[in-house]
Structures are given as structure tokens and as C-alpha cells.
């Protein structure tokens, strides 16, 4: 296994990496003696506000509804190996549900700028799920990139 060092991305590099959406992994806390509830997730990202948007599916038999919701803490990570090496972004904060009644013009404008990929990972028709939208205005947002040195040929 290679020894890979990482360095902090600047805001422009981070925003370019995030684009307007993609996929990642979200973790939500549970009881103190239980591991976090962790799920693969699609996201939209608005570089103007720095907010992430998520479309989450809920079914009646899932435990997700009791763990994931409005005003719940979340940690989110997205990563990829790019032509310039490994990149990752970690965001954490409090999730806010985006309901029709609560949508203000700034949120509507931001949601038009993002693209949340629709990834079908369901074992049944997606119409059987209740989809809800959430926004994360991160308290913490860090991007890391693989360090480049002359000894690795700038790779």
C-alpha cells in the first residue's frame, strides 16, 4: 500500500471537486453504545451558499425515520480518485428538512443550482417510498487532496 499524504484544499478546489452534486456517505448518531447509522447518499451542492441538499427515501419499515430528520446531526463525506489524485470533502452540522411551507426564495434559487443524482438502489418501485428533502449548512467543511511531490513525478 502506498503512503499517501494529504493537504487541505482551498475553497475553489473544494467547490470544483464538489461540482453541483454527486454521491457520498452520510452518518447519523444513534445511542452511545451503537455504531452510527451510515448510508450511501446522493447530494446537491450550492457553491454560492455552501449548502448541501439531500433527497432521502423513507419507507414504513425502515429505522431511518427515527434517526434521520429535521434538526438532527449529520456527518457527510464524498471522495474520489481524480486525474490529480485522491480528493475528499467532509461536512458536518445539523440537518434541516426542506418542506414546501418552509421554502424561501433563497432555498428555491439554491435548489435550482444543484443536481442531486437519482440513484436507484431500491429493491422495489421508488414510488413506494416517501422522499423528503434536507439541507445541510455545514458547521464544519474540510476538503483534502493527495499531496504531490517531485519524487512521485507530480502524480
Explain what the structure shows:
Helices cover 14% and strands 44% of the residues. With 155 residues, the chain is mainly beta. The protein has a single domain (7-145), classed as Pnp Oxidase, Chain A (Roll), CATH 2.30.110.10. The longest helix is centred in the last third of the chain and has 9 residues, at 105-113.
The helix tally amounts to 3
Strand order of the largest sheet: 2-3-4-7-6-5
**How much helicity do the residues have?**
10-25%
CATH class: Mainly Beta
Structural class of the secondary elements?
A: mainly beta
What value does the average pLDDT take? 81
Tell me the fraction of residues in β-strands, as a range: 35-45%
Outline the biggest β-sheet: 6 strands, antiparallel, barrel
CATH architecture title: Roll
Shape: globular
Distance between the termini: 16 Å
Query: pLDDT below 50 for ≥5 consecutive residues: which ranges?
Result: none
Q: What do we call the CATH homologous superfamily?
A: Electron Transport, Fmn-binding Protein, Chain A
What would you report as the Rg, rounded to the nearest angstrom?
Answer: 17 Å
Count the E strands: 8
Order of helices and strands: EHEEEHEEHEE
Task: Compute the number of structural domains.
Answer: 1
CATH topology: Pnp Oxidase, Chain A
Amino acid at each position: 500500500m502506498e503512503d499517501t499524504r494529504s493537504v487541505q484544499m482551498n475553497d475553489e478546489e473544494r467547490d470544483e471537486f464538489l461540482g453541483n452534486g454527486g454521491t457520498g456517505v452520510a452518518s447519523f448518531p444513534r445511542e452511545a453504545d451503537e455504531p452510527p447509522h451510515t448510508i450511501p447518499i446522493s447530494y446537491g451542492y450550492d457553491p454560492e451558499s455552501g449548502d448541501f441538499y439531500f433527497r432521502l427515501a423513507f419507507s414504513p419499515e425502515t429505522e431511518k425515520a427515527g434517526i434521520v430528520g429535521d434538526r438532527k446531526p449529520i456527518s457527510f463525506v464524498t471522495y474520489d480518485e481524480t486525474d490529480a489524485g485522491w480528493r475528499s470533502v467532509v461536512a458536518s452540522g445539523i440537518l434541516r428538512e426542506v418542506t414546501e411551507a418552509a421554502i424561501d426564495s433563497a432555498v428555491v434559487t439554491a435548489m435550482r443550482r444543484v443536481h442531486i443524482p437519482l440513484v436507484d438502489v431500491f429493491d422495489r418501485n421508488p414510488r413506494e417510498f416517501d422522499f423528503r428533502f434536507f439541507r445541510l449548512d455545514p458547521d464544519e467543511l474540510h476538503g483534502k487532496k493527495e499531496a504531490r511531490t517531485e519524487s512521485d513525478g507530480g502524480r
